[in-house]
Amino acid sequence: xxxxxxxxxxxxxxxxxxAVDGISFQIRENEVLVLAGESGSGKTVTxxxxxxxxxxxxxxxxxxxxxxxQDLLALKEEGLAQTRGRDIAYIFxxxxxxxxxxxxxxxxxxxxxxxxxxxxxxDARKEALxxxxxVQIKEPERVFASxxxxxxxxxNQRVFTAMSLACRPKLLIADEPTTALDVTVESQIVKLLMDxxxxxxxxxxxITHNLALAKKIADRVCVMYRGKIVEEAGMPALFARPQHFxxxxxxxxxxxxxxx
Amino acid sequence: MILExxxxxxxxxxxxxxxxxxxxxxxxxxxxxxxLEQFRTLGIVGESGSGKTTLxxxxLxxxxxxxxxxxxxxxxxxxxxxxxxxxxxxxxxxxxxKMRILDIIAEPLRIHRLVPRKGLKEKVAALLSxxxxxxxxxxxxxAEFSGGQRQRICIARALATQPxxxxxxxxxxSLDLTIQAQMLDLFMRLKEECRLTYIFISHNLAVVKHIADxxxxxxxxxxVEACDTQAIFTSPQNDYTRLLLEAARG
Lengths: 260, 250
Hints:
The structure holds two protein chains of two kinds.
Chain A: E1 3-14, E2 17-28, E3 32-36, H1 43-50, E4 58-67, E5 70-71, H2 77-83, E6 88-91, H3 105-117, H4 121-134, H5 140-144, H6 153-164, E7 171-175, H7 183-200, E8 203-208, H8 211-217, E9 220-225, E10 228-234, H9 235-240, H10 245-258
Parallel strand pairs in A: 3-8, 3-9, 6-7, 7-8
Antiparallel strand pairs in A: 1-2, 1-4, 4-5, 9-10
Chain B: E1 3-16, E2 22-36, E3 41-45, H1 52-59, E4 67-72, H2 80-83, E5 84-87, H3 101-111, H4 120-130, H5 147-159, E6 165-169, H6 177-194, E7 197-202, H7 205-211, E8 214-219, E9 222-228, H8 229-234, H9 239-249
Parallel strand pairs in B: 3-7, 3-8, 5-6, 6-7
Antiparallel strand pairs in B: 1-2, 1-4, 8-9
Helix pairs in contact in B: 3-4, 3-5, 4-5
């Protein structure tokens, strides 16, 4: 059917509290699906459940995540480790907190390459520099030798993106990747992701509370509210004919302060 | 006029090396001047590193300027720490996690001896209701609240001393867009109810447009543009302002 990933009736609970309450969606090859909703609506839990990197207090109650014919939720941990990071990669909100402060940027990107692709150090170094160029960093050599604290938030997000793309994933899961950034930097990063998608060809699950971003990048949007997908629509249609009251709330907030 | 900032500069010295022998000067603010009338809202816009927060700290006398002066009208601001308040960006680390909401909001009341002890609970309840939280919140701890609710608690605490002037340093940037819209409405309502003067710091022009009467745009420690809010959107003079406008328009 051309679906890269198919999520069926996914349920995740923290103790007795359901965080994700029976959601289903599919993402096609080369498609950008936006999960939109407020904090606490279950967007991030959904993203983490796809490759089972949830916190220990969370439990996947039921459901399936079919990725290239395999159910990731039924897979053994060793099998999943192959997919996670290689075929499905993530970028998160605060890149600096996912980068190791005591290693250089270069060595951290090389680690990702060596781990998944069994390449020599020299080879990995070349590849890391190429990746830094790919994410449009102007002085790859300098950044390669820098530590995360020496770079700005936007730069760190570029580095994080380079690392995530090291293994040419089929699916990039971007969880509020620009929320901690200035608006000018935000638009640069969004543009970068779209450029990369065009050159590398991957699908994207993009999570945000801000419909302004959905408008820029989404092919389709799923609106989440209290653990459920309450509305799903193609991109111009969502704004033209919102059905659910929460979608209307999100649009009203966007109209008010999401744009000029 | 309630506030005059005159020719304020701030130079930070960054020490480097093992024995801190190499000192490097960073000019965070460079000859910043502006005036603010009472009951108005001044928006300060700029990217990270433009000097917005340093300016806020100097206005609040938390940091002293290297050069220049900040003067409040002594007829209007009589007791500085009581009359001038701040609300910070991150409500997750500006509330003491080990204190109940009652004690958090009552602390300024106690310090400034504004309310007799018997009346504390009633006063706190009244402050909570002003920011849209119920009385039962008093007995709870910060961790039990969402980001938006915590920011409301910070506002209630700031209002406790009946301030005349509040500096809002990116007060909604860490919140969801829907909550941001609600908070903006709250700030505007409180400004009327409590007859406040605001400095509203933000990196987002779309937000400033709603709340500010006039705007200054900062870059690298300097004011690059200063004018009425309307004018900045209709006829921006500076290239950098245009860049910010473009980013906000998407």
